[in-house]
Amino acid sequence: PTAGTVNKPVNQITSYSTLMTGKFRYFIKPDTSSYYSFAWIDVSREPVIFEIPEAGKLYAGFARFDSWGDVYKRYDPSSEHKMNKFAVTVRLWNGTLPEGVEEVTAPTSLVLWVHKIRPSSAAGFANYVKAYQQKINLVPLSRYGNAYTQPKKRYDDSLPSKPPLEQGYDL
Fold this sequence. Notes:
This protein is mostly beta strands.
């Protein structure tokens, strides 16, 4: 995958069922023995709920970065991965979440979610990883519990698709 292929609309998940290479530049030094899923999350209007399946034979840790690029929440499967439903909210949000959904408050309303998935061995795990990634769900709170289909493309093609660092090279 290349950096330009990460661009999906906000609040939608992009998953790769191929291993990263050293050419991937969306973020610094991806682990080339892992698969990734990404989502830019905007919680300025309402919380967004993630449903993360049990990882089984996979290492499936994930981190959330605030708008400044700082990690504000990390989950390591060896310690906290039992929880599989959580809502990303902002500090001033005041509301009620569905039962069984843990609230995780973000310091900014725009969040980058990075899910790193590493199989215990590379052989034969691509299909297993893809099936796992397809079970990851991201739903706005207002649609949680109802049938929900991700909206089609909602972004402007005229905007730069390169990551900020590569845009700087073009100046």
